[in-house]
Structure formats: structure tokens, C-alpha cells
Amino acid sequence: MGFDPDGNAAASEKSRGTNILGVRAYNERLVLSLVRRFGNLPKAEIARLTGLSAQTVSVIVKALEADGLLLRMAPNRGRIGQPSVPLNLNPEGAFSFGLKIGRRSASLMMMDFIGTARGQISCSYPYPDLKDILAFAGTAIATLTGKLTKAQKSRIAGLGAAVPFELWNWGRETGAPAASLEAWRTCNLQAELEHLCGWPVFVSNDATAACGAELTFGKGHAFQDFVYIFIGYFAGGGLVLGGNLYPGRQGNAAALGSMPVPERSGEGKSGTGQLIAQASLHRLEQRLAANNIDPAGFFKAPQWDRLGSILDDWLIEAASGLAHAIVAAMSVIDFGGAIIDGGFSGEVRARLVALTREKVMAYDLQGLSPFEIIEGSAGANARTAGAASLPFFSRFLLDRDVLFKGEA
Questions:
Q1: Which CATH architecture does the domain made up of 92-211+385-395 adopt?
Q2: Mean pLDDT value across residues 298-319
Q3: Where are the beta strands (DSSP E) in 320-378?
Q4: At residue 20, what are phi and psi to the nearest 5 degrees?
């Protein structure tokens, strides 16, 4: 903690209290988060889950209905007494946009308040050029907003952008010109996108955003704490602790692609490398090229079942690296589970998860609590959906810092 010359805690580091507006915002986010998770919740059940009084819940629900965020559904009849009226999120309550910027492709999604994609536009490229991607985003935003009414446009919560951490690195692996990558190092992406669209913009590591999508719309609620791994061009990850997305000190928590993992040379000598050298689509690209298969052509229209032993060998190698990373993560934090997803078909994902489970069981797990390894649910769209969820996290969903936001 820092102190001023008089021995008082520095103002920027003092613990901040909250006021009635902060409590109200917390309670409203709490109700919206519970309705998003469980759906069809009557006010009495909301009161039971939150510990709030029936009167307080009624006031909150009334305000959220007036804001167009909650809908009353058909009453539950057939029981003694007055029928309960379940509440659900209003799909038209808010809209958000998500931009995924990858090393080989970009995608823009328009999402409604319940997480349904209302439209999506994608493009591919040999390497990510800043000017080209901003031009793509501008055109795609204009196309998708053109489908909205004036009332719907007034409910746009913002735009989220999911970008690999330090996109300007790994130039050799991506084959990108140095000047194109250097532009990413010096640009203020948030400011560029805000100028482009005029909405609030939220920028996140791409794998962290994908983890947020799994937590909000997928299988993440199965665990209070879990580690998330997404296999894209490189491998990345995300953390959920205590039911909250944990981005880390600089937004790069669970940078699993950089985790050291064992590797073996052709002469049987052991060594270490990074996880991305084993579990990544970049590694699969290398295997395709070595077998005279054009990677760009394959990924435009992938036919996974035709890869045969190429895919088999890649899956075994990737599962070996993932197993090591998962066991190492479990040794640090007592996660309830690991969720694996990636930019490939559901069948490939299922095989990868099954192989990873087998590899994990070959480790000495003595001293570790039991944990599960399961498939993710979003697939290739995880990062784009995660980007679109960022404005919802900021505006409407419960997070651990909400009481310390707003007016002082």
C-alpha cells in the first residue's frame, strides 16, 4: 500500500465504500445473472436464492421490466394459491456486437440479450493487417446494424473485441510482414473501434473472452472454479474462480500456450517446449504441409474425416501437451474441472477430450482432488461469442467488482 507524506494511505489505493446506487446496481445485476442462469424464475424463487425480501425483489423486478430487460411469462397454474409468474430475460432487452480478430481470420457477431446470434460475418486472410481488419469491421457493422429497427439500435450495449495477447509476436510462425504486426503494437485498438462505431468498446484477450462465453452461455456453471483451454491457431486459456471470470493482472491469465511441456526429439532425447508447439492448429498446419496438403485450402472447407493418420498423430501429440498442462494447473489451484474447446468440429473435439483424459490418467495424481475434463460448447464461435458477451458483462451481469464502480 502507498502512503502520502503524512502517513495516510494514498487516495488511489484506499478501500472504497459504496452507496445506495452501488447496492441497487449490485442487486439488479444479481437478479439478471440468476435469471440468465436458471430461467423461468418467479419472484419468490429469486427472493429465496438472493436472501432479499419479497418487497425488495418486487421493486427490482419492476424496474428491470420497465427497462425492457425482463419479461413475464405465462403463469404456472395447477397449484393451490395464486399462480406464480416466471420471469425470463427479454431477447430484445439489449444487443451487443463481438469482433474476433485472429491470426488467420476475423469475425463479427451481433448478439441479443439471451446470447442468440442475430447475424455474423467472417473473413479470412494470410495475416492480420490492421487497416484491412478495421475496414472489415466497419463494413460488417454497417451491414448488421442495417437489419435493426430504430428501437433496437437504441439498445446496443457496445462492442467487444477479442484479440490474441501480443498479436504482434510470432511473426515467423504466421508469416506476416514485420510492418503489419508492428502496427498492432502501437495502435490503441479500443479508441480505433470506438471511433469506428460510436459505442463503448471492451477489449479482451481472445481466449479469456471465449472462457467468458463458456461461463455465461455454455457449460461453465457446472463448476465453481475451472480452467478453460481453447485450441485456435495457437492455444490459449481462461480462468474462472468462485464463479467469476478472472482476467489476471494484465488480462493474460491462463496463458497456457506458453506453458512449458515435455517434448521428445527423434533421437529419444527429452526436452521442453511450449504447449503451442504441440496443441495448436499451427502445428496441424505444419503436419498438413509436410504431407503436401495446402493448409489454407483445407481450412476453407475442412473435411476432418479425410485426414486419417495426420489427424490421429496430431490429436495424440495435442492430448499429451494438454494433459501435462491440466495436471500442472490442478496442482496450483484446486479446480473442479477443465473445459477444452477449439476451432474444429465437434467430432474432433470429442476425440481430443477423450485422448486427453487417457493421458491424464497415466499421471501420478496422488495428492490432487478429483476433477473432470469436459468438452466446451461453442466451438469455433467461442471467441466471437465471448467478445459479444463483454458489453453484457460490463453493463448487466454480476461481477466481483460491481460494488466499487460508479459514483464515489
A1: 2-Layer Sandwich (3.30)
A2: 94
A3: 337-342, 372-375
A4: -65, -30
